[in-house]
Amino acid sequence: MPGPTVKRVPFESPTHDVMGGDARRDVKVHDHGLVALVDVMPRMIPEGRTADAAIVQAARVSYGQGTKRLNEDRGLIRYLLRHRHTTPFEMVEFKFHVVMPIFVARQWIRHRTANVNEYSARYSVVPDRFYTPTAESVRGQSATNRQGGDEAVDAGTAKEFLEYLDRCQGQYREYEKLLEKGVSRELARIGLPVNVYTEWYWKCDLHNLLHFLSLRMDSHAQAEIRDYADAMFALIEPIVPLTCEAFRDYRLEGAHLTRLEIESLRAGKPLATDNKREQAEWDAKRARLGL
Ligand SMILES: Cc1cc2nc3c(=O)[nH]c(=O)nc-3n(C[C@H](O)[C@H](O)[C@H](O)COP(=O)(O)OP(=O)(O)OC[C@H]3O[C@@H](n4cnc5c(N)ncnc54)[C@H](O)[C@@H]3O)c2cc1C
Questions:
Q1: What values do phi and psi take at 177, rounded to 5?
Q2: What is the pLDDT of residue 148?
Q3: Check: CATH 3.30.1360.170 for 11-131+196-254?
Q4: I need a labelling partner for 109 at 20 to 30 A (CA). Which of 73, 156, 240, 260 fits?
Q5: How far apart are the first and last CA of the chain?
Q6: How far is the CA of 215 from the centre of ligand 1 (A)?
Q7: Confidence (pTM)
Q8: Helix axes 259-267, 276-288, angle to 10 degrees
């Protein structure tokens, strides 16, 4: 029995590569870190358009004739993002090669909707690369955010911290010695500190990537992972500029109001809460709104 017949449908207009013919695009992060964009879907798109076109194409299937009123790419993308019609954004995918310290990878891996393949320290020797912040960026514990750090510590304390890191990194020599003595790589590695670098390929669709970026570009995220998120945003912005613009406008730099906040604004009264943290968050929002 003959197999199914495949009909080839060429693009109607000339196309271009959304990565401009590049094999990869790299952004260096910190001392040894890297975020590289290695592939995008869609890769080839009609001349004069961006990969945002794949979002619009999928959305038009669901809206059909209804999109006649929303038939401009930018307007449609902004509408979709504002109204959390998210699945069209899943039609675009990005594949990254990332080199980051293990403590950053631990936070990153909590994002479950990506496909990941990581360097195996059971199979290969861990390279001698450790993340060391500059003396000026050794942060003190924040007084307002229990999870965070803010102001730089004094020079003496920063020096002490860097010496402590140096001693931890000294474990690498022990690691090498134990490998030479025949200890397995899978066991020898467990004495290395979490500022040692690992690397992985990480593939994610745009909807889930925006979710990742909204959490990890946020000021509440640890500065180190924020630097990686900023690098990713810089890499995707030229590929999906319309989506990135809408993301900035409606999510990244937008604000959400709770029912209590709306009532406080409407009635011109204090926020109806005795929760100090909620009050502080409202004060911060009011300041942002210039109230
Ligand atoms: C500032 C900050 C501080 C944090 N502090 C801590 C901490 O102290 N301790 C800690 O353990 N974690 C902490 N986290 C991690 C956080 O709780 C989330 O695990 C992480 O941000 C991933 O979010 P997510 O689950 O929404 O993302 P993803 O895993 O990317 O999932 C995306 C979305 O898919 C859906 N989804 C995915 N998997 C499932 C599932 N199995 N069931 C239902 N829905 C699913 C959800 O809607 C989810 O929002 C912190 C994160 C941030 C940003």
A1: -60, -45
A2: 72
A3: yes
A4: 240
A5: 74
A6: 9
A7: 0.94
A8: 60
Token duo for residue 271: 């926020």
Q: Nearest residue CA, atom 3 of ligand 1?
A: 221
Q: Which atom of ligand 1 is nearest to the CA of 113?
A: 30
Task: Please tell me the distance between residue 113's alpha carbon and the centre of ligand 1 in angstroms.
Answer: 10
List Cβ<8 Å contacts ≥24 apart for 262-268.
none
Question: Strand, helix or coil at 166?
Answer: helix
Report the distance separating Cα 91 and Cα 41, nearest Å.
Answer: 8
Residue 249's nearest CA partner among 78, 80, 54, 49 is 78
Could you give the 3-state DSSP secondary structure of residue 65? helix
Alpha carbon of 224 to those of 22, 78, 160, 227, 248: distances in Å?
A: 27, 30, 20, 5, 21
Give the separation between CA 200 and CA 2, rounded to whole angstroms. Answer: 43
How does DSSP classify residue 196? Answer: B
| Distance, CA of 164 to CA of 171 (rounded, Å) | 12
Residues 172-227: tens digit of each pLDDT: 999 999 999 999 999 999 999 999 999 999 999 999 999 999 999 999 999 999 99
**pLDDT under 50 in the chain at which residues?**
69-70
**Ligand 1 atom with the shortest distance to the CA of 112:** 29
Residue of 189, 216, 226, 288 marked active site: 216
Quickly count: other Cβ atoms within 10 Å of residue 56's Cβ. 22
Residue closest to 100 by CA, chosen among 216, 182, 251: 216
> Is 167 known to be catalytic?
no
Report the C-alpha gap between 100 and 32 in whole angstroms.
8
